[in-house]
Amino acid sequence: MVYLDEKGTVNPVLRGKVGETLEITITSGEGAEHDIVFPELDAKSEKFTGKSAPVKLLVKLTQSGEFTYYCSIPGHRQIGMEGVLEVTGPADANAKAKPAAPAATVMGAATANPIAPAAKNAVVISQDPNAVPQPLGARAPTLVKYAIETVELEGKLDDGATFTYWTFARKVPGPMLRVKKGDMVEIKLSNNPNSKAVHSIDLHAVTGGMGGGEHTQVAPGETKTITFKALNPGLYVYHCATPSVAHHISAGMYGLILVEPEKGLPKVDKEFYVMQGDLYTNHAFGTKGHHEYSPEKAADELPSYFTFNGSVGALTKEHKMSAKAGETVRVFFGVGGPNKVSSFHVIGEIFDKVYSEGATNTIKQNVQTTLVPAGGATIVDFKVQYPGKYLLVDHALSRAAKGGIGALEVTGPADDKVYKASEPGHGNMAH
User: CATH 2.60.40.420: which residues of the chain?
Assistant: First the structure.
C-alpha cells in the first residue's frame, strides 16, 4: 500500500514554505479504508474508501523542517503508506510548543475516555463448538473445495458490550476445515464489498506462499484462490495475514484446519471445536458500550478480554456443549492469539490422550493441563465418567474473570466408585 500523486510517484515528497497552507485532495484507488496524517503539524484527514468522495485536508505550514505523513490505520504505515513533507523558510515563533496545561487539567483530560453506545444491531458472532465436520475415515485423497467470505460486522462481545469484529464467514473462530493427508485443497477467499480493510488467509497447514497469505490479499469486493496439497497430518491454525496482523487476528480472524492422517483418527462419541483469543480494546473488561480495538494495548500485550469462541459467555450462554456419562469426548482446541499462550485445562477431568501441539503421531496420556502456544493447537480426548458441569479454562486463572471460560454439561447416573461427596454434616475434619 502506498500513496501516489497524479504522476504516479510513490509516496511523493511534498514541499512548501513557512506561512503557506497546503490543500491536499486524496481518494482511494481500492476498497480499503485509509487516511493521511501529519502528526507533527496536528493535521489529520477524515477516513476514506474507494466508495467515498475525495477528502480534502488543509495543512498549515507553521515551521520549517522535515515532517512525516502516513496512514494511521493500524498496519498500513508499516507496509508502505508513509512519506515526507519538506518545509523551507524561517521557523515561525508562534509555532513553538505551548506551555503545558496545569496538572489537574491534564489529569482530567486523561481520565475522560467516553465510550460510544453499544451497537443496536449487533449479532452473535460466537462459533458453535458443535460445528465440527464429520470424520473422513479411510478414504483416498481427493480435491476438496472451500469458499470463505471475510466479513466485518458489529458483534456481541459481552452483556451490554459490542465490538467491531473482523471474521471468516461471520463467526469467531471461522469455520473448522477438515481434509485428509494427500488431498488437494482449494481455498477461494472473497472479501465482502462492505469491508473497509484488505483481508487474507494464512493456513499453517500449507507449504509455500507464506501459507497462502502472499497470494490472498483480497480487497473489498474481490476474490482470490489458492490450491495446496495437504502434506502433513495434524491440527493447524489459520488466520488473516494482512498488517496489522495482530489487529486482524485479535478482531476474530482465526480458525482451525484438521489434516487427518491416512487412516483417520480413532473414533470418539463427541467432537467439539474451541479456540481461545486475546482481545485488546480501548476500555476495560465489563465496560458497557461499543469497544474499539486498541493497538497500544496490543503492542504492550495487555488484553482487555480473553475469549473462548469469540465472546464472553459463548460456551456458557450462547452455545451448549453436552455429553453423557460413559462417552468419550474430543476437543479440537486452538489459540488464535495473537499473543498469549494458553494453559488449557478442564476442571474435574483428566485428558486421557493429548495430541501434543496438534501432531497426530505424538500422543501423551493422563495429562492435567496442556500448553498451547499462540498460533498453535492441540487435540484432547477424555472419557466423561461422572455427571456434572466441567469447566474449560486457561489455567492462568485470572483470565477466567476476563471471559475465558466454557462449560461441558455431562448427564447420566452418578457412579460412587468414581466420585462420592460426603453428606452434609457427616464430613470429617482434622484439627
Answer: 14-92, 143-411
